[in-house]
Amino acid sequence: MVGLKGYETYDAVGLAELVRQGQTTPEELLASAISRVEDLNPHLNAVVMPMYDEARRSIREGLPDGLLRGVPFLLKDLGLLYKGYPTTFGSRLFTGLVAGHDSTVVARYRQAGLVIFGKTNTPEFGITITTEPALYGPCRNPWNRERTTGGSSGGAAAAVAAGMVPAAHASDGGGSIRIPAACCGLFGLKPTRARIPSGPDVGEGWNGMSTDHVVSRTVRDSAAFLDVAAGPSLGDPYWAPPVAGPFLDEVGRDPGKLRIAFTTTPPSGAAVDPICVDAVADAARLCAELGHTVEAAAPAFAYEPFQEAAVTIINTNTAAMVAAGAKVLGREVTEADVEHVTWRAAEAGREIGAPAYVDAVRVVHQTGRKVARFFQAYDMLLSPVLLQPPVPLGFLNTHSADVRAYVKNLYRFFGFTNLFNATGQPAMSVPLYWTPEGLPVGLQFAGRFGDEALLLRLAGQLEQARPWKDRHPGDLPG
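Structure tokens predicted for Amidase:
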């Protein structure tokens, strides 16, 4: 079947409007998406589980008349379940685990009329910020195929940046929406804690630090997907604050004159590449030109106890994932079954006692209270997303026995994002800057708890002032 000419130039809202107007069909859009995957995926390794027949079946049986009817869509192969297909979590442990039901968010995506036709690459258990799993192999950045896509939603970001889909499912427990968005020149919003439900199998991810959403090329797509997926489901342990109206209506509204703080010093105090410092200065100037008040400031909190607590939560959850893998396999999991960094994290998690785990949760909550006070004085905090532009593939080697070297490199790249997973605040990566070599540099804006609306208003203003939608990678094959 012939696809839609110029498919890759449209966002999801635009494609859905073409379907509503009868200018294209879901079948044509799916053909376009599959064609781009087949052409580009051998070079990028973004899509690791094609579901083409399932997608065609969903169209034949009739799509719901939802907000995004007919738009092709990809799920990250981590966390969310799709009935009849595996969710591997990027690990060899779970390749045979086939879901017997949909996750709540997947059901909402399907009800919106999305055509889910595959799953994207992710690191094992999502515990690192590059996408180079042993199970599927490295995902390559469309802007430079020798560079990382970021993680853990690296496959999603590569697919969107390459025009396979206009938006793709992503998740974020320490930066895993914002980091790939930054590396791949996309918009990536991490919603407020509990804005997106985690059910029906779990009430939260990583003790509330993890949440689902998308990476996208446009701000309005991010808002539309938030409208589709947001809202509590039955039995959720807690809810995000209610919103005044559709998120899509916020895009284009005047954000007013905002008080924007900015910083180029990560909480760890680690060195930041001058190009990332320049990116923040450039974004601060742009915000000032748009009429906002901009000044240097950052929240004060005890970084080392916070970081230790966050690592404790991740390690204990990793140990629980390995234990779940043992149940699936019906035997003990050995070091040979998982990547080295995963094994060491699980070992550390098994050694953590209940009092230390409870104390880690307390420290994270305490940090959230301290940081919230800062946002009484400021509407937003601007910073880099990362400490340097996208690093080469192999820089973060989860297969190496030299864990010290891995951790050292991790903290040379990562440093601004995970605070807002702990506090539960919404934060976004906005593609406002590129290096002279053509690599994207994402800028993070964090807002008050529950106030995605204000972030979307500012993002829409920035997008209008400095459009990025039609800026495409020049390194794509063909």
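The CA atoms of residues 243 and 450 lie 8 Å apart.
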